[in-house]
Design a protein that fits this description.
The chain is of the alpha/beta class and 313 residues long. It is built from seven helices and 13 strands. The strands form three sheets. The chain has a nine-stranded mixed β-sheet, sandwiched between helices. The radius of gyration is 18 Å and the shape is globular. The termini are close together.
Length: 313
């Protein structure tokens, strides 16, 4: 936890020393701020399943082979195990960013799932700390967190080939991209890229992130928000990681946010508030305290399979 705390306060100090940046002039673009309480039971169950796929990405046995069942030895992905999902492509320890995760095929729920692990290594932390933004080919004027962008592009070509192969074999399956923390940030960029590939993929990829930090500037947030209505950014109570990097540094989140405001280990439909807008203090961005343990709890202990320490971003 010490590393996460140091990063949070280092970013906060940096944010406080810089005047509010010019991105505020475009605040009229995109959805207006609003809040509604409650989601459907069906959507809640989707969130629960995707959180367990994100949890499974932390388990080493799911990242070092192909064709094996996706399992969680610590017992935090029973829905995934019951579906008998199997890895079509598993990856770990990429050279620069130490990207780790898998492409899974779930014949029970008819899913192709691309899942990314959160931080667990020094290379992952190098990615997190590369806070500058750079222009990318995601869209015109899309400026993206340099570390997150390089992490995605390091695995992009291989992931695209394996996902497209799986979708070609299973054309009637839903395509889902998910991740927690750093894995959520990479998942956001992956979804943006996949949705650009061709007409058939423009509207179909579903994105579910849990405790993801911000990935880019306002133009990036506008582009990703307008790209699809199948993006679900889930945050939890006073989890501080979704507030990083600070909005005062020019970063913005996509909209909407699904903020768990009660019972984060096992929320009901009325425990989740739908918050729209790129910076809305009625969700996680508001003054709801700081609790790093909330970052580890999304529909259960999402990081329980980690092999070292307890820091996550």
């Amino acid at each position: 936890m010490a590393i996460a705390i140091c990063l949070y306060f280092a970013t906060a100090v940096l944010s406080a020393s810089i005047p509010t940046l010019h991105w505020m002039h475009s605040r009229d673009k995109g959805p207006k701020n609003s809040e509604t309480n409650g989601i459907t039971e069906a959507l809640l169950q989707n969130f629960r399943l995707m959180a367990q796929y994100s949890a499974a990405a932390y388990c080493p046995g799911n990242n070092n082979g192909t064709g094996t069942l996706i399992t969680c030895p610590v017992g935090n992905c029973p829905l995934v195990e019951a579906a008998r999902a199997h890895g079509a492509f598993e990856f770990e320890n990429t050279v620069w960013a130490d990207n780790t995760g898998f492409v899974a095929v779930d014949d029970t729920n008819k899913l192709v799932v691309l899942a990314f692990r959160g931080s667990e290594s020094l290379s992952n932390w190098r990615v997190n700390m590369d806070l500058f933004r750079e222009l990318t080919d995601l869209c015109e004027d899309c400026d993206v967190h340099t570390g997150f962008w390089h992490a995605w592009t390091e695995i992009r070509d291989r992931a695209k080939v394996r996902v497209l192969n799986a979708l070609e074999t299973h054309p009637d399956y839903r395509f889902v991209i998910t991740g927690h923390s750093l894995g959520g940030a990479i998942a956001v960029l992956a979804a943006g890229d996949f949705r650009k590939l061709n007409h058939s993929l423009a509207a179909t990829p579903e994105l579910y992130t849990f405790g993801s930090p911000r990935v880019g500037g306002k133009q990036t947030a506008v582009f990703l928000t307008e790209q699809s209505r199948l993006s679900f950014r889930i945050t939890s109570m006073s989890d501080p990681i979704p507030r990083q990097p600070g909005h005062i540094l020019g970063y913005a989140h996509t909209s909407p946010e699904f903020w768990i405001h009660a019972h984060p280990r096992n929320p009901g439909p009325d425990d989740i508030k739908v918050v729209t807008g790129f910076y809305n203090k009625h969700g996680n961005s508001g003054k709801h305290g700081i609790n790093f343990s909330r970052h580890m709890q999304y529909f259960g202990p999402i990081t329980e399979c980690r092999t070292v320490g307890d820091d996550s971003f």
